[in-house]
Amino acid sequence: MKKEPKLFLVSAPSGAGKSSLIDAVLASASQSDLALELSISYTTRSPRKGESNGSQYYFISKKNFLDKKNSHFFLEDAEVHGNLYGTSVEFVESKLNAGVNLILEIDVQGFRQINDLDINYESIFILPPSISSLEKRIKARGDDDVEAINLRLKNAKDELSFATEYQHVIVNDSFEVAAGQLLSIISQETPLNNKNTEEVKQFLSQLLSY
Ligand code: 5GP
Q1: With contact defined as beta carbons under 8 Å apart, do 46 and 143 qualify?
Q2: Which residues 6+ apart lie within 8 Å of 137 measured at CB?
Q3: Cβ of residue 78 lying under 6 Å from some atom of ligand 1
Q4: Which of 8, 81, 150, 156 has CA atoms 20 to 30 A from the CA of 139?
């Protein structure tokens, strides 16, 4: 029997390597018969180097964003690191109706909003191997100013405590292993659902006590 297309909600603190993992999974899916795409969100943040409108995000003004929000254009929306982000209802509906599974790269606030709706989803939280690796990755990206980096770092630590609300937790220690775990959840072959294992619990409390 053909599986119903699903939303895969993927959250992680900045610098946990979420985008690279998602890129790897999208690349694997494109080589298989798994219909999988990334939901392109709307944001008021400015494009970074290499980003273009409609590829990573639709970049819009704050006024445009708020108009859309008022007309119920968004399935969920949130303010993250001082910018507004939202997922288009129409985008999601049209993909699901076309039988395409969608990855939504959203923050914890967005996850909670979707959790309150009657939608078929799977939720995945990606943990960094350590706090220092987070710090290193956020700084190495070099595309935010010092203030933005510090805000991202503070938010990252706050966000970690929400990991246990998700159905699956992946530790991005080995990239290949983590990408394989993400793919197996998304292809719905072997459910990982490991958030309650002692190993993950211990690891999380270690990260949180840093
Ligand atoms: P960035 O600016 O680094 O691309 O993303 C910053 C944060 O915003 C990330 O945690 C990302 O998951 C989140 N984000 C991106 N798009 C959306 C969205 O449409 N909705 C929500 N709630 N968060 C989003």
Answers
A1: no
A2: 15, 16, 17, 128
A3: yes
A4: 8
Give residue-wise pLDDT tens across range 172-198: 999 999 999 999 999 976 555 665 567
**CB distance 41 to ligand 1 below 6 Å:** yes
> How distant is the alpha carbon of residue 203 from its chain centre?
20
Separation of CA 107 and ligand 1 centre (Å): 6
Cα torsion angle, 186, 171, 169, 85, sign: negative
Query: Contact, 119 vs 104, CB < 8 A?
Result: no
Cα-Cα-Cα-Cα dihedral of 187, 190, 193, 197, to 10°? Answer: -150
SS3 state at 185: helix
Answer yes or no: is the C-beta of 184 below 6 A from any ligand 1 atom: no
* pLDDT per position as a tens digit, 5-30: 999 999 998 888 899 999 999 999 99
